[in-house]
Amino acid sequence: MISEIIKLNSGHEIPAVGLGVYLTPPNVAENITIEALRAGYRHIDSAQYYRNEHEVCEGISKWIKEDPSKNKREDVFYTTKIFDDNHGYELTKKAINVSLERAKDIGYIDLILMHSPQSDYERRHGSWIALQEAVKSGLVKNIGVSNYGVKHLKELLSYSDLTIKPAVNQVEIHPWLARKDITEYCKENDIKIEAYSPLVKGLKMNDEHLISLSKKYNKTPAQILLNWSLSKGYIVLPKTVTPSRLFPNLEATSFQLSDEDIATLDTLDKYMTTGWDPTTYPLDDEKK
């Protein structure tokens, strides 16, 4: 069965379907956040790099104020990310405070991720120490990483002063980019996978396998793709600025692909990225 809620290694729970707001303009982000929450979403994924943190938090705040007796802050899971140019202990501390200021109307941040591993050992390590301190402050509930390959995860888990493991690793994943090495390593270490670009940015909606399964289950190709990720226990982050597409994406939890059909989609894996891929970023000793 598809789980609509995923339990993190921190003990906190995260909705399995979230709204991604990458490339969502600031003047659109607030409204699509409100519309998503009205549609039933309880998980919004932003980042400092997206330049819409404030607007997303405003959307959450306004939704809560619409009906405070029913719309509760604790029911919404809000994520942001620290970008590469803010790696390092002091820079990350400042960046965390900036994000907290933008989120002041909602009180705290549920999850902060390191957006990628693209710096060096010292700065990545310093950033993680700052993130651990943010959790201890109570204003950040969970921390994790994004775009981390196995080697980056191994480096992080080897920190001598590690007190909090990453709750998630957010990476691009879909049937054409299965990342079995990363997903298996994360599973072994109780780090949940968050799949971004789970709809392959619309590039594969006419794939014959997808069309066939869409007809078989009477679901849209997008719902088939989301269900593939959900069936594997991943958290999915479909992106849309079109309100009419919000609820259909949530409905991807309402059915279950068969093991045979999941296996069919698994055969499509061919390392197809639709954007950047920092999971390949070299460690310090690999740059020499």
From TrEMBL:
- Site Lowers pKa of active site Tyr: list residues: 81
Q: Which PROSITE patterns match?
A: ALDOKETO_REDUCTASE_2
Origin: domain of life: Eukaryota
Annotated NADP-dependent oxidoreductase domain residues? 30-269
Q: Name one GO molecular function term.
A: oxidoreductase activity, acting on the CH-OH group of donors, NAD or NADP as acceptor
Annotated positions binding substrate: 115
Alphabetical UniProt keywords: Oxidoreductase
The residues responsible for catalysis, as annotated, are 50
Q: Which Pfam families match?
A: Aldo_ket_red
Return the similarity comment.
Belongs to the aldo/keto reductase family.
Query: Which protein is depicted?
Result: NADP-dependent oxidoreductase domain-containing protein
Q: To which species is this protein native?
A: Pichia kluyveri
Lineage start = Eukaryota, Fungi, Dikarya, Ascomycota, Saccharomycotina
